Amino acid sequence: MKRNQSAEDYLETILLLSKQLEYVHQVEVARAMGVTQPAVQKALKILEGNGYIKWDGLHIYLTEGGKIYAEDVYCKHCTIRRFLELHGVNSADADADACEMEHVISPATMQMMKDFVNKNG
């Protein structure tokens, strides 16, 4: 799938919700993302069409491929946030910036950040 910030944000949100809840529903995704339920429904249809989720109209499940993709995006987010914090950026700004940067960062830059975070905590 071509990198798509919106799709990645939905996958990341579904992943995080699935770690907190037994079942993920459209309403929780809408609430977590601050969007309408019709917007979530449209996104879910696209994600399902791309094979990233299974959705029975009520429960949302990540497929294996969707889970791998979502975990990759979330790992980038956490690494970038920590990298920025280690460079003195406050947590709120680091989190907000990581949310944007995770979608556009090059593999080489991401690897440098991972190496730095792994070495420096």
Molecular structure report:
- There is one protein chain.
- 70% of the residues lie in helices and 7% in strands.
- The chain has 121 residues and is mainly alpha-helical.
- It has two domains: 5-69, Arc Repressor Mutant, subunit A; 71-120, Diphtheria Toxin Repressor, domain 2 (Orthogonal Bundle).
- The mean pLDDT is 95.
Number of helices: 6
**Rough outline:** elongated
Strand-residue fraction? 5-15%
Tell me the structural class.
mainly alpha
CATH arch. level architecture of the largest domain: Orthogonal Bundle
User: SSE order in H/E notation?
Assistant: HEHHEEHHH
Taking the alpha carbons of the first and last residues, their distance comes to 32 Å
Using DSSP, what is the number of strands? 3
Strand order of the largest sheet: 1-3-2
Major sheet summary line: 3 strands, antiparallel
Spatial extent as radius of gyration:
15 Å
**Which class of the largest domain in CATH terms?**
Mainly Alpha
The percent range for helix content is over 70%
Average residue-wise pLDDT? 95
- In CATH, the topology of the largest domain is named Arc Repressor Mutant, subunit A
CATH homologous superfamily descriptor of the largest domain: Winged helix-like DNA-binding domain superfamily/Winged helix DNA-binding domain
Stretches where pLDDT is under 50 for at least 5 consecutive residues are: none
Features:
121 residues; mainly alpha; Arc Repressor Mutant, subunit A; Diphtheria Toxin Repressor, domain 2; 2 domains; 6 helices; 70% helix
